[in-house]
UniProtKB/TrEMBL annotation:
Signal peptide: none annotated. InterPro entries: DNase_TatD-rel_CS (IPR018228), Metal_Hydrolase (IPR032466), TatD-like (IPR001130). One of its GO terms (molecular function) is hydrolase activity, acting on ester bonds. Pfam families: TatD_DNase. This is TatD family hydrolase. A divalent metal cation 1 binds at residues 6, 8, 92, 201. SUPFAM superfamilies: Metallo-dependent hydrolases. Belongs to the metallo-dependent hydrolases superfamily. TatD-type hydrolase family. PANTHER family: D-AMINOACYL-TRNA DEACYLASE. Keywords: Hydrolase, Metal-binding. It comes from Candidatus Dechloromonas phosphorivorans. A divalent metal cation 2 binds at residues 128, 151. It comes from the Bacteria.
């Protein structure tokens, strides 16, 4: 079984052919797709998508790059959705210090408040960790949640080990398919099997063979093949390991 643990199927990039994108993913052997929200305004579209398409599951949260537009009342809305909809995780949440036009303090406020909600509802979290891993780990040590996934992980082995110690798995996707991504590929080959999950982040982070085009969940088998080669495993064994890791960290899948 292949599980895409991070795919924005609700994104506008799929508005013209979402049915076909989902059908192609199923035909490729992708049986489960986690669809994380990025803002309160996207919650209903995520809900509609996961109800319409077989095998899809929702996560609800406020993405750090949407923190500038968020209102504190959005946290009450999120609380209501977590209680009513029973998602698989709180997400996509986290920090992004790559961008220069965002307020780090405002990002941290929404991240911390959402960690508190995840702790309250005993839900794992889907983490956005771009150039912010140490700060995220600092908050995770203070506000303990039931694990989750460090999405698009590209940190050090030491940081990876700390996430694992805190009950997290690490998401590997399109970036791993580039031969020049030596650190990511080394981690993908060396980390414990139980710590690795597959993802596409579609429509973003396309694998090498797309040449920068729109990513889709149907690319997950190709990503899995790259990981299987890096770990010197048969593809079906690799897929089973990653699916088991995903189900362990997201028990509602």
């Amino acid at each position: 079984m292949l599980i895409d643990t991070h795919c924005h199927l609700d994104a506008a990039e799929f508005d013209s052919d979402r049915d076909a994108v989902h059908a192609a993913a199923l035909a490729a052997g992708v049986e489960r797709i986690v669809v994380p929200a990025v803002a309160v305004d996207s919650f209903q579209k995520v809900k509609t998508s996961v109800e319409r398409y077989a095998g899809c599951a929702a996560a609800y949260g406020i993405h750090p790059l949407y923190a500038m537009q968020a209102k504190e009342s959005d946290l009450a809305v999120l609380r209501d959705w977590l209680e009513r909809e029973q998602p698989v995780a709180v997400g996509e949440i986290g920090l992004d210090f790559h961008v220069t036009d965002s307020d780090p303090a405002r990002q941290e406020f929404y991240f911390v408040e959402q960690l508190k909600l995840a702790r309250e509802f005993e839900l794992p979290v889907l983490l956005h960790v771009r150039r912010s891993i140490d700060q995220i780990l600092k908050h995770l040590r203070r506000i303990r949640v039931p694990g989750g996934i460090a999405h698009a992980f590209n940190g050090s082995r030491q940081q990876a080990d700390e996430f694992i110690r805190l009950g997290f798995t690490l998401g590997f996707g399109g970036a791993m398919t580039f031969p020049g991504s030596t650190r990511i590929r080394r981690l993908a080959s060396e980390l414990p099997a139980a710590a690795i999950v597959l993802e596409t982040d579609a429509p973003d982070i396309p694998p090498a063979w797309l040449g920068g085009g729109r990513n889709s969940p149907a690319e997950l088998p190709g990503i899995a093949r790259v990981l299987a080669d890096l770990r010197s495993l048969p593809e079906d064994e690799l897929a089973a390991q990653c699916a088991a890791a995903a189900r362990a960290v997201l028990p509602r899948l």
